[in-house]
Amino acid sequence: MGVEVSLADKVALVTGAGPNIGSGIALALARYGAQVACNDLQEEAAAACVRRIERHGGEAMAIPGDVTDEADVQRYIDEVLGRWGRIDILVNNAAILGGRGLLEESLEFFNRAVEVAGAGTFLNCKHVAISMIERGIRGSIVNILSSNAWQGAPGVIAYAFHKGGQANFTRAAAMDLAPYGIRVNSYSPTAPRPDNPELLAELRTSGGLRPGPQSPPDRPPWWREPGRFDVRRNMPMEPSTPTDIGHCVAWMCSDYARLITGCDFVIDGGARAKYWGYTPPEEKAEPVALIPLYDDETMPGGF
Ligand SMILES: NC(=O)c1ccc[n+]([C@@H]2O[C@H](COP(=O)([O-])OP(=O)(O)OC[C@H]3O[C@@H](n4cnc5c(N)ncnc54)[C@H](O)[C@@H]3O)[C@@H](O)[C@H]2O)c1
User: Contact, 118 vs 165, CB < 8 A?
Assistant: First the structure.
């Protein structure tokens, strides 16, 4: 019998627990034994995440609210403390994806995207950490980054700015909280393949994860196309899923990781390690099979 990773007796708070990565992480934390508070700006997204956890016998509560509004953040943290008395795990997942490149981005979008990632992560870290310190809890905080925290891509100037900022925020917060035994790490998703059956059903009717980049109709004559992405082709192995991410984040929040702080984690099939000029062969052996969180959460094929 091997060792068992368990989050039993721990309480987690996941921000932006919408149907994709946040919901996958929340479900995994519940599967590993935690009680999970699911936040989202959209009330229905938070409620759907709670239903997904409860369907499998887990314990969850919805805490809708805006991560950038300090009164809101304090209110939903108090709701979690009122119900479960503690918070051991915080996952800062809420973000605004998409956007445009430097030459086309609006100040309004830029500022709001930075606010959600920056102020959202700051406020949740600050107030959850204080709640941990007051209760003597040596908890774990995980900030969700992106490949865009580490590498430059065209068309996402706000995203690149706030994800890169969150990378060093993570290290600095790890230093601020180390004296209290609280760990702060980051996880960088790399174009994961959605695997939430409800989201997949929706995507199959809507045709995509989110609208593609929107271009202004009247680009100036000097405009040059920025090139193209071939995300899947450039992965030495295959793309991960939110389930893979959930397994990793659950382990990062377990006591086995007690001295891991200020680190970034990836499950990217070797993408970030890859020499930039190298294109992997198309023919690859499949990795070992994904261990599903629950049998009915396995969706062959993905999106
Ligand atoms: N999907 C990807 O390919 C990918 C790749 C790399 C990194 N990421 C990161 O993973 C995380 C989750 O991505 P996703 O694909 O699940 O995105 P998503 O858009 O499906 O989920 C983000 C959620 O955050 C919520 N949110 C936005 N503003 C908020 C606010 N002010 N307060 C509370 N909630 C708010 C949204 O309502 C949404 O449900 C994000 O941090 C994203 O940047 C995603």
Answer: yes
